[in-house]
Amino acid sequence: NAGVTQTPKFRVLKTGQSMTLLCAQDMNHEYMYWYRQDPGMGLRLIHYSVGEGTTAKGEVPDGYNVSRLKKQNFLLGLESAAPSQTSVYFCASSENGPIEGDTQYFGPGTRLTVL
Amino acid sequence: KQEVTQIPAALSVPEGENLVLNCSFTDSAIYNLQWFRQDPGKGLTSLLLIQSSQREQTSGRLNASLDKSSGRSTLYIAASQPGDSATYLCAVRPTSGGGADGLTFGKGTHLIIQP
Fold this sequence. Notes:
Chain A is an all-beta fold. Helices cover about 0% and strands about 45% of the residues of chain A. By secondary structure, chain B is mainly beta. Chain B is globular. Chains A and B meet through strand 4, strand 5 and strand 10 of A and strand 4, strand 5, strand 9 and strand 10 of B.
């Protein structure tokens, strides 16, 4: 099992460019999440999905869009990148969602720089 | 709004010492608490998950406790080794918002074990 994988690992964009980050999981998990990690701050939830075809906003959703067309994939899009979106982006998945024993598994991250 | 605080922010100790990392959270309405390890430039590795109905969990040299009523958790590392050097993150899963809103993270404790 590869677990949770993310593509690409690194990316540099210019302000106003667009891009899509891909997250894939092979654990047949229902729930998937996108977080961002910034220096001096904890990870913050951007968007999440509770199953194929569903998406919902997290704590910091502005400037991002997501799609979950297939159960194993969760895409994060930046339509017009801004320097404030420079960050490390982590994808996570979990099997059961909001129950006591549910563990989230994280991907290796994508380091994005917006110039 | 749930807030998670980790103390200390950084810690440097000689090899072989036993040490305690602290995590506190403001709202006791949680499904679980998870401790993660993050190595520089890497993703998050789940170390221990404590369900809200549990008091502690153990894995090898690691022991995590949870006092939900007081909003505190500790991660105990026995006989520390240089390979334990990493940033340790604490995260809770709130029951508010249906619980599918993901995890709320602390900023982490940066741990250095001196050989």
